[in-house]
Specification:
Structural class: mainly alpha
Order of helices and strands: HH
Number of helices: 2
Largest sheet: none
Strand content: under 5%
Shape: elongated
Oligomer: single chain
Length: 104
């Protein structure tokens, strides 16, 4: 890289000087204050909540099936609710807690 003699400036001097007069008043904008970000839930937690909702819905539908004297459908829905709760518990336990859950 070449440096030309006319582009060299002695130390301490600025290439551009800003001169303002007392009449020149500018409004300084303050950056907006940001809200602290809430941590986003992980995928496993979101899926576990979805499975909990599936279990609640299945149990409600099972109760309606019992009232309609449809025992086969009620049993299927109760099995679905139970499986959804187990899956949610496994997701919440994580990789380290699965062994203890399956052992119990």
């Amino acid at each position: 890289m070449r440096s030309y003699p006319h582009s060299k400036q002695p130390r301490g001097t600025a290439q551009l000087r800003l001169i303002t007069t007392p009449d020149d008043v500018r409004e300084v904008s303050v950056p907006p204050v940001r809200r602290p970000r809430t941590s986003r839930q992980g995928r496993n937690v979101r899926m576990a909540e979805r499975l909990d909702q599936i279990a609640i819905d299945a149990q409600r539908d099972a109760a309606q099936a019992v009232m309609a004297h449809d025992d086969v459908t009620a049993r299927e829905l109760l099995d679905r609710a139970s499986a959804a709760r187990k899956a949610a518990a496994l997701l919440r336990a994580g990789p380290s807690g699965v062994r203890e859950m399956l052992a119990s």
